[in-house]
Write a structure and sequence with these properties.
4-stranded mixed sheet; alpha/beta
């Protein structure tokens, strides 16, 4: 078995349509798929990896706001942080830097799911 990479990470939200609006209008991802019937949407950025969004339901033990951290790569973390701040996104702490490797800014979406913006360094 050879791992190819992460194609999809998914989270649980309380309102899938509200989440779609957040990820398209605030974060800048585009909507690839949406099934209102199943409470499911998939969004992506230019690199092609997808973020799945599932409506909270009794079929899963996962609750809205309880997820693994998904990173969203940006070319300028300082500019992204300023834009998110202007859009009233809940930023957690300051930008963290691993010198020569990555800069990261943690933020939370409207359901309390934790994400990070990241800028790769030295590439």
């Amino acid at each position: 078995m050879k791992v190819q990479g992460i194609e999809l990470a998914w989270i649980v939200v309380n309102d899938v349509e509200k989440a779609i609006k957040f990820y398209t209008e605030v974060v800048g991802l585009h909507l690839c798929e949406f099934s209102k019937e199943y409470g499911w949407a998939e969004l992506a950025g230019p690199s092609g990896s997808r973020l799945g969004i599932a409506t909270a339901s009794k079929e899963t033990d996962v609750k809205a706001g309880a997820n693994a951290v998904v990173t969203i790569c940006v070319d300028d973390i300082d500019k992204a942080r300023a834009e998110f701040s202007k859009k009233k996104v809940h930023l957690v702490g300051d930008i963290i830097e691993v010198p020569g490797h990555v800069k990261m800014q943690t933020f939370k979406d409207s359901d309390g799911n934790t994400f990070q913006l990241c800028q790769m360094l030295g590439l």
